[in-house]
Design a protein that fits this description.
about 700 residues, alpha/beta, 24 helices, flat, binds adenosine-5'-diphosphate, binds magnesium ion
């Protein structure tokens, strides 16, 4: 597929289904093109002589030199739309925008028609947008091939949306916030072109500074990650993904499956791609405003300059809620502030120039603070006073921001009196808000993106493992005609170099005693059955069993299994070395597979309450060592691992290695659908897997 530049910057556009019927889509699209487009518009409609003073042609092939048309916009009913797309291909038109609805969103007949569209696009190598798309816009050429009522202001944001209705809502709203756009595309059903294609295109487009997306799904997760992780090195990509609360994880057969559901997969995918993910539409445009208007910070320390003490504290709290910190001002800065400011002022950050400050005082203080090398970003915060004009302050802030190049966000705490000042600021790219938290959050977005750009890609290490032995363990499931394996498959972990306790699975009490004697000391006994998901729930685990009791406990465990789950296949009992769990932390390491993003690795706080706390980190596999370490540092319970309250810190290196080795298993064996090691007992001595459960797709083995 060629580059999409002629889609957004065409010289000639043909409208198939042009119309002047008031209120029709054809009228709206044709009207927008006739009014705004700086190129040539051609009308196709066999039933009319003219439409809006354009001569109508019977078909695309009846146009004068149809091969010179850059974009065909297709509005005719579905059956005719497929024909029009084929015709566009035949006459050599490279881009088609199918606005027509009635395809895969409308049942199986529509889905079949959509496949025909995709096949035609494939045959003629067409860039096809839609179907069921609102259309495309591009401000430099005045292209508005949509039926949206609002045309965007020109700017440097390019925006793709999976919802057409949302495009119209956003453009209307953005106009009020002085946000300008370069290109806009309504993705529609994404039969051919999808989010990855547009991210790639805009990554190469010098006129696009920020890419925004409203997505309901990602067509090909791995491709998106590949494309977007390149683009985000230069151009920020911000995505709001709807459907976060989808209850798709309920059918999962493992902890990891339940916790690494589709939303976590998206999170992991967007993260790996360096995409800024936001939760709300408001955050999407806050991010867009700051990323398109402000430079990136060279440090994440924030300075606050305010004429109001209380709101200054609120802003300080807001900084505390983020990963940003307050800048500590240099001695020189504080000295200058002391000289310039009246007695009651605070010359430490947050700098409070007090309520009677005229704009000159604000300006001087801000100038001093922005020149401080410790200051990475600034919040200018003002409440209405008799001595300060918001308009003057806005003008001064804009100038000083430009002069110092320090990223800035403004908080104007007021209503109607702030309006024109806010406009001055946002026209100059300085975002302004009523709420300090939003200003701080937008600075955090900048800092996060700055970090994303600097990130290095590290190839995950390859561990020395015994793949054939691992395969043999998995093959046992086939022999037993099951897709589930439990602790009887602990050899799998051993084959991948993941530490496991001494012990064995046995199927009679005498052998259990023999193994217990060999292991030494008190042992752990567990019932072994692929059908019992949570052994301890049915009393199937006994911890700290002396050798003398092994025989009895063996019988008890089997009896319990028979009582609570009479239809379960009991393979025997596992006798395991007893680990000192109290000296460490139970963690979980797991694998899950997402239909869009492929293998995922999960790490978190483990044990029997794992789904209660849901304290986990999820990444796309394979996971490089640095990422694995970040996972161990990223959970809420990280302080436990580091040794909180006098406990010994656990062997983090060991844990990181377990994550890395399991991640390799995830990529080596696509047949492993879900896998939990819960717990991996992490102590000062090491990280040891004591339990295992996995689900296989035998056909993929
Ligand atoms: P299940 O998760 O099916 O209930 P586990 O094998 O995970 O079974 O055992 C349940 C709990 O028993 C673990 O979370 C852990 O607290 C404890 N446990 C299991 N194996 C050992 C062991 N070898 N040493 C110490 N404690 C263990
Ligand atoms: Mg367990």
């Amino acid at each position: 597929m060629g580059r999409l530049s002629t889609l957004f910057a065409p010289d000639r556009v043909a409208v198939v289904g042009a119309s002047d019927e008031p209120g029709s889509v054809g009228r709206a699209v044709t009207g927008h093109l006739v009014e705004d487009f700086r190129g040539e518009v051609l009308a196709v409609n066999p039933n009319r002589e003219t439409v809006l003073e354009l001569v109508c042609h019977d078909s695309l092939s009846a146009l004068p030199s149809p091969g010179d048309v850059d974009v065909a916009v297709v509005l005719v009913p579905p059956e005719l739309a497929v024909e029009a797309v084929r015709e566009a291909g035949e006459v050599g038109i490279g881009n088609v925008v199918v606005v027509t609805a009635g395809f895969s969103e409308a049942g199986s007949e529509g889905a079949a028609r959509e496949r025909e569209l995709a096949a035609a696009a494939e045959e003629f190598d067409l860039n096809l947008v839609g179907p069921n798309s609102l259309g495309v816009m591009s401000t430099p050429s005045g292209l508005n091939a949509t039926f949206a009522p609002t045309s965007p202001d020109p700017g440097s944001i390019s925006f793709m949306s999976q919802s057409g209705a949302f495009v119209t809502a956003v453009l209307d709203w953005a106009a009020e916030r002085h946000l300008g756009f370069k290109d806009v595309v309504s993705l529609g059903n994404k039969a051919v072109l999808d989010e990855s294609d547009f991210v790639r295109e805009w990554g190469e487009d010098p006129e696009t500074d920020v890419v925004l997306g409203y997505l309901e799904d990602v067509a090909d997760g791995r491709r998106f990650v590949e494309v977007a992780s390149e683009v985000t090195r230069e151009t920020p990509v911000v995505v709001v993904k709807s459907g976060r609360t989808e209850a798709g994880a309920t059918a999962a057969a493992s902890h990891t499956g339940a916790m690494a559901g589709s939303d976590r997969a998206y999170g992991a995918g967007l993260d790996a791609a360096g995409v800024v993910r936001v939760d709300t539409v408001e955050e999407l445009f806050d991010a867009a405003a700051v990323l398109s208007g402000q430079p990136l910070p060279d440090r994440s320390a924030v300075a606050i300059v305010t004429n109001a003490g209380g709101p200054g504290v609120m802003t300080t709290d807001a900084v505390g809620d983020t990963d940003l910190g307050l800048a500590s001002l240099t001695d020189g800065t504080r000295e200058t502030l002391r000289e310039d400011l009246p007695g009651g002022a605070n010359i430490h950050n947050p700098v409070d120039i007090i309520g009677d400050a005229p704009v000159e005082r604000f300006e001087r203080a801000l100038d001093t603070v922005l020149a401080d090398p410790n200051v990475g970003m600034a919040v200018v915060l003002a409440c209405p006073t008799a001595t300060l004009s918001f308009d003057d302050l806005a003008a001064a802030a804009v100038d000083l921001q430009a002069e110092h190049g320090v990223p800035m966000a403004a908080v104007l705490m007021g209503g109607a009196s702030t309006r024109s000042a806010a406009a001055t600021l946002s026209e100059a790219g300085v975002p302004s808000y009523f709420d300090p938290a939003r200003a701080v959050d937008s600075l955090e977005t900048l800092a996060e993106y700055a970090e994303t750009r600097e990130r290095e890609t590290v190839e995950p290490a390859t561990f020395d493992v015994d793949r054939e032995r691992a395969r043999a363990v998995l093959e046992r499931a086939r022999d037993r005609d099951t897709t589930r394996l439990g602790v009887e498959a602990m050899d799998l972990l051993d084959a991948y170099g993941i530490p496991t306790p001494a012990g064995a699975v046995v199927d009679d009490p005498a052998e259990a005693v023999a193994v217990a004697e060999e292991v030494g000391g008190e042992v752990v006994l567990k019932v072994v059955s692929p059908d019992i998901l949570h052994k301890s729930d049915i009393g199937g685990v006994e911890v700290g069993v002396p050798v003398g009791e092994v025989r009895d406990v063996y019988e008890t465990l089997v009896a319990r299994a028979r009582r609570y789950q009479p239809d379960a296949t009991v393979l025997g009992v596992q006798v395991q070395e007893l680990l000192d769990v109290s000296a460490g932390t139970e963690t979980i390491v797991g694998i899950n597979r997402d239909p869009q993003f492929g293998p995922l690795v999960l790490f978190g706080l483990g044990g029997v309450f794992v789904e209660v706390f849901e304290d986990t980190a999820v990444r796309l596999a394979p996971v490089a060592e640095r990422e694995a370490r970040a996972m161990t540092e990223g959970i809420e319970a990280a302080p436990l691992l580091r040794g909180a309250r006098g406990r010994d810190p656990v062997d983090l290196d060991g844990l990181v290695e377990v994550i890395g080795r399991l991640s390799q298993l995830a990529t080596d064996f696509p047949a492993v659908q879900e896998l939990d090691i819960n717990p991996v007992v992490a102590t000062a001595e090491g990280a040891t897997a004591v339990d295992l459960r996995l689900t296989l797709d035998l056909e993929a083995l």
